[in-house]
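Two proteins follow. First one:
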Amino acid sequence: MVKNGLKVEKLNLWFADKHILKDISFSIPDKKITAVIGPSGCGKTTLLRCFNRMNDMADNLRIKGKIILDDYNIYEEKVELSSLRMKVGMVFQKPNPFPKSIYENVAFGLHIKGIKDRSKVLGIIEKSLKDAWLWEEVKDRLSSSAMELSGGQQQRLCIARALATNPEVILFDEPTSALDPQATAKIEELIVELKNSVTVVQVTHNIGQAARISDYTAFLYLGELVEFGTTEKLFTVPQDKRTEEYLEGKFG
């Protein structure tokens, strides 16, 4: 099947009576980096969590509209959430390795998928850690606790854990906000490399980061999609005054 990325169609979301996302429609291209920017409280993370239905755990949630992945709406009742989250991985703001060994962190999703052959599991773990630029640093201590790793290493481990299930999409929610500049630079380089194999959607408050690494940018304001387009065009010739003012730091 030809992959076409993600397509959002007239997406609306409410928590109780609060209308958080308002009639959002846009298409996220396959194997590109799409940044989602906007001021705090505009709905960025809520939108990101729609792509793997992480919001489903919230009380009083109501959603209308569609998100299309591989020609089906992920909000259909028949969709199995565990399978969806294998296809659409997520890396959070703060590194969140499990309090287990490095090996068990990366193998976690493989166990859920029912892959038990140890040599196959080890092969996938090695590839995932290599793809996350972590293998050389940890190959001799896979049985050590993930909690012993530095913050940047922990975040790359979380990326390896997401990669192990062979996802089509990886969601990043402010993945460098808790890291120092050196670790941030490494994660940025890694994300750029990842788009060769997966579609990347990243929420960031860091406008400079969006400009540096994304191919496309979506600007959200008060729950509405104000503007979406190539990063180069949106940053140099924004079509909406609100986008221009946000990029100039006049609010946010």
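Second one, unrelated to the first:
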Amino acid sequence: MAPSRQNDREARQARERLRAYQARQTVHEAKTKRRRRDNWAAGIAVVVVVVLAVATQLLYFSKPGTPSASASPSASAAAHALPPKTLAENRTWTGTLTINGIPLGVSLDGAKAPQAVSSTIALAQSKFYDGLTCHRLTNGGFYVLQCGDPKGDGSGGPGYSYGPIENAPSDNIYPAGTLAMARESGNASSQGSQFFIVYKDTTIPSDSAGGYTVIGTVTSGLSQLVSQVADKGVQGGATDGKPVVTTKIGSFTLK
């Protein structure tokens, strides 16, 4: 009987060791699966972060910041529709663009830039420009004040974009007083509401899309704009960025 009891005890101990081993194996397998799942989730998170970082960089580099005045055709809060180029009536339009209380006399050439002038007329008549800031000033070799972005950071527009480029100077020279449309580099169909005022003779090289649509000229008041805004410089002492003087459009009228 003694040997039989000893065999039973040994068998029971063996079964207990087997159950303990199986339990450890189950815990180990569960930990391994969880670790793999966590690693997979972490990998996905890394990919998402990388994608978002790349997208952020692409967005950043699409904004203005190079000698070619640029603009993104992002929609504003109240989207507008692109008017037909016949609105410009193939004639000269005159009016007043008031910036920081300075009345700038302007003349727009509806014959040479019918689509851009038609868009500007429609936006001005709808008071789209009233209250918008001039978000960009440059003074490091080229000299422009860029305005007309409802977002105020160079990424906004009227809810549409258009092309082609019209009335761009063949010699890339934009005389003081030139009014021209901003756009994205290399994209002739990215014009929207943003425009720039050249306050000192400036050469802006053409890019792969060409030059910049000249819609007209500032006929009076430019010297005041220069002394009260441009001469005060760019924030932080930079050569391209927000003006030191907060600059806003009060109104834009054309007839």
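SUMMARY FIELD: The longest strand covers residues 92-99. The two ends are 120 Å apart (CA to CA).
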